[in-house]
Design a protein that fits this description.
Blueprint lengths: L1 E9 L4 E12 L4 E4 L15 E3 L5 E10 L4 E10 L8 E3 L7 E6 L5
Antiparallel strand pairs: 1-2, 2-3, 2-8, 4-7, 5-6
Length: 110
């Protein structure tokens, strides 16, 4: 999940600034814990992070991999962006303090 925290509301620009961070819902306690917290045994750490994109669609693709414990080949569905050249707006999940900002404007298009 993503957790958004309001940082700033600029009346003149009519824009909100929101900081987003990652949460994980731990099944046993039904409590949300921050991603990437190595001090919390219920947290999950993603060594390469979770890249977050804006205004892109995700598309499913089939992944085949070999599990190194039993040398068996498995397949699974995964998701990626529909534009491989796009750059993420943020990466979360590697550390507990990972976050990224977005600006949300309320101006009308002309």
């Amino acid at each position: 999940m993503l957790k958004g925290s309001l940082v700033n509301f600029n009346v003149e620009r009519r824009a909100l600034t929101v900081v987003w961070s990652g949460l994980y819902l731990y099944n046993a306690t039904k409590e949300a814990v921050y991603l990437g917290n190595v001090d919390d045994e219920n947290s999950i750490v993603f060594p390469y992070g979770i890249e977050t994109y804006r205004d892109l669609s995700s598309v499913p693709y089939n992944v085949t991999y070999t599990w190194h414990y039993d040398n068996q080949t498995y397949w699974d569905w995964s998701y990626g962006t529909d534009n491989i050249t796009a750059k993420p707006i943020g990466v979360i999940g590697m550390h507990v303090l990972d976050s990224f900002d977005t600006d949300i404007t309320f101006t009308q298009k002309r």
